[in-house]
Here is the input.
Amino acid sequence: MTQEQLINSILEFIASDATTEMDFNKLAIESFAYQYENNIPFRQFSIQQGSTPRTAKTWRDIPPVPINAFKSVLLTCCEPTSTGRTFMTSGTTQNGVCGKSYHPVLSVYDQSMIRNFKNRFLGDADKIKMGILFPDTDSMPNSSLAHYLSLALNNFGTESSSYLLTKEGIDFSRVFENLQYAQDTNTPYAMLGASFSIVHLLDEMAKQNKTYSLPAGSKILDTGGFKGQSRELEQNEFYEQLSMTFGVPRNKCFNMYGMTELSTQFYDNGNAKCPSIKTGPHWIRSRVINPLSKTDVKMGDKGALVHCDLAHFNIVSTILTEDAGIEVEDGFLLLGRVDGAEAKGCSMAVDEFLRANQ
Amino acid sequence: MNTLIEQAGHVPDFLIDDIKWQQLIFSNNSQSLNVNVPILTATQCQRLSDHIKLNNTQFLKKQNTTTIIELIDKAIERLLNRSDPFRLKAEKLLPVVTGFDTEMIRLSLTDYLKNFRKPQLLRFIAEDFSNPKILDEFQPIIKGGFAKAFGPDCLLHIWAGNVPGLPLWSLISGLLVKAGNIGKVSSSEPLFASWFVQLLIDIEPRISDCLAIVCWEGGNTEQESVFLNNAEVVVAYGGNTALKEIQHRTPITTRYLPYGHKISFGIVSASVLDSQKSWVVAHKAANDIARYDQHGCYSPHVFFIESGGNISPRTFAHYLAHELSCLQEKFSRRSLNVNESIQLAHWRDDETLKLLSEPGSEVISDKDGLWTVTFTEDEGSFSLSGLNRTIRLVAVNSFEKIIPLITPYKQFLQTVGIAATPTEVFQLSEQLGQHGVTRISGLGSMTAPEAGWHHDGRFNLLDLITLTEIESSAEVSSELYTPYKD
Here is the structure.
C-alpha cells in the first residue's frame, strides 16, 4: 500500500459514520503492514516482540511501542522533508532528548482534530468566540498543542477570537475585557488552554478578587495537567474553582487528553464528576494493560494505557503510554502520567541518578 | 479482606492524652492494615523535646554502658524469639506494610537482629572507642589528661524507606551513647522502631521518658523546625533533595549527619567462573538481588563480569537469570502498584529498545517482569537497574575498565560485592576505596553488613558524641590545691 492509498483510506474512515469493529481492525492491520514495511526500527521491534502483520489478527495484536522509543529511535515511514511538520514533546526529558513525531502531511491530523473537536467540544454551535491561553504556532512551531489550538481557533472561532498569551505571559487585562464583554453582552465564550495557564489565571483572579458569570453556552477546555508549572490542584478542586470563578457549570468544563505521539485526542463530557470518563472517536481504540506482562488487566483495574490511533499513520499507530488508567464500561478513567518518583527504599533510583547527573 | 489495626509511635505519658493520631493505610498480600501514628502540634513538639532532654540527663545519662547494652540485648532477644508476641506481630504485619515476601522478612530479620546481641554491641563500641569506659567516666588519654564522651541530650532521627528494621541502626547507636532520642518514622515502614521502643519500655519502664517515636508529613516545617532547633545532632535518611531541605532548616550549630541514597554493585572475577563455582556465585548474586528486592542502599544495581573464564559472562547472565527465577518460587517479589509497574516497564522497555542498536546485548526476563537480567558487552556503560529484581550485567575484559566508569559517581558509591581470589580482592579494594566505595563484602553478603559496620564509611558512635577533655594542665594544677599538699 502506498502512502497516498493509506491516507485516503484513513480519511475515508474518519469521515464515515458507519464503521464497524471489523473495519477498524482491517485498517489497523493495513497500517501496521505499511509501518512494518516502511519503518525498519519498528519492523525490528515488532519481530523482537513476536508480532508481525502476518500474525496479527486484530489491533490488539499490534505490538505497542513505548513512548520513550520516540526519543531514541527515528520512527517515520518516510524521510523527513521541509514540507512536513515535526511535533516534539515538551518539557525536559532524558539527556535533553525529546520525543518526535514527523507528519509528512497534516491533512489526516487536521481532519481527525476537526471532526472530533466539533463533536465533542463545540456541540450545536458552528462557531464561538475563543480565547486561547497558549502560544500560537509561530511561537511554538513544533508543539502539537499549538497546532491543535490554531485549528480550533481558525475553524471554529469567531473573528473576535484571540490568543491571550504574549511573550510576557498572560495578558490579564485582555482576558478580563473579554470575560466582561461576554458577560455584559450575553455572548457565549470559550476559553481553551494549558491547565497550568488556567491555574495562573485563577490565581491572578483570586488576587484581584474577580469572578465572572459567563452566559449559557460558554465552555472551558483545559489540557496537559500542571507539569510542575503551577501549583498542583486536585481535579475536583480545579473544576470547582473554574466553575465558581467563571460561572461555567462543571459539565461544560472539558478536559482534553492528547499527546505528541498521537494524532487524535480524547475528551470527557465535562467534569461534573471527577475523574471523568475519557472517550475517543471511532478511529482510535484504547486498552489498559499490565505494562510488564503486556496483557490486558481486568476491567476496573489500574494499568497503563495503550492507544491505537489510525490517524497517526506515518509513525506508529499503536503506542504504550506511561499514563495510568482504568477501563470502564464506556471509556477509560485517566489517572495521569507516572513520573519518576523516588524508589521506596534507600537505593538510588534511575530518575534520581539522572537528575544527579544533569 | 480483613483490616488489621496497629498503634505505632511512642510519646511519654505526660503527653499521651493530648495528642492526635493519624492513620496510615497499608494494603498488600491480600490484607490491609491501618497504622495509627502520633502527630504533634508545634507546642507539643517543644514540650516533648524539653521533657526528653531533662529525663535523659536524669536517667539515661546516669546509666553505665553495660546496663544499656544489657537492656538492648534483652529487647533483641525477644525480637529473635519466634514465639514472642512482638516477633509474631513483626512477622505478620511487616509483609502487609512493605509487601515483601513473608519468609524473606522472617529470615532477613533474624540475620539483621543478630547484629545487636550483647557481643555484637560490644563490637560496635570497640570499633569506635579503644577504651569503652570513656562513655561512663573520664578516662586517661594518650596525649595526657582525661576525656569522657557525652552523647547528645536530644538526638533527632529522620528515617526513610521501607526496609524493615533500618531505624534500629541509628537508634541503638543513640542509646549506646546515652542520647535522648526522638525518631521520625518513615510512612513506608512506621512499625519496627515503635515496637523496639515499646519492648525497651517493657523491660525498663524508666526509659519511656527518654525516647519518642513520632511522625509528621515530610517537609512540614512547623513541627520539624521545633525538633531541628532542639536537637544537638540530627541523623537523616532519604534522597538528596529531601536531605538538602532538612539541612537548610537545621541550625548551623547542630551537627547534621545525612545518609543519602546509594549505588552498590558487584564484581565477578574470571578466576571464579569455572563450571563448578559459577553456579554458586550466581546463586549468591541472585540472593543479593532478591533480598528486599534491591531496596537497600547495599543492594546491587550492576554486576561487572570479567571475561576470560571457562564460563563466559553471557553464560553467567543466563545462570543468574535461572537463579532469579528459582528465587521467585522461594521468595516472591513484592507486588508492584501500577505506578511502580509503569516505571519498571519504562526501564525494561528502554533496555529492550537498546537491543535494536546493540546486537550483542540481551534482555532475559520473566514474562510478567518479576525479574530481568540485561547483558551487554558495551564496557562504556554504567547505568542503573530498575530495582525490584532487575540487574544489569556488563562484561569487561579487565577490572581496569570499571574504575573510569564509577569515577563520576564517587559520592554515591557504597557497597561492592566481590567474588575473586584474595590477591584480587585486595588489589581491587585499594582502587575501589580510592574511588569512593566504603564497603567491600563477599557476594551473598551484600545486604547483611557486619555488626559495627561503618555506615557509608562513617563512625556510628563517634559521629554522635562530643568529647570533654580534662587537659593535663588542669590535672597538674589541681594538685596545687589539695588539702594534703605539703
About this structure: The longest helix of chain B spans residues 313-330. The longest strand of chain B covers residues 20-28.
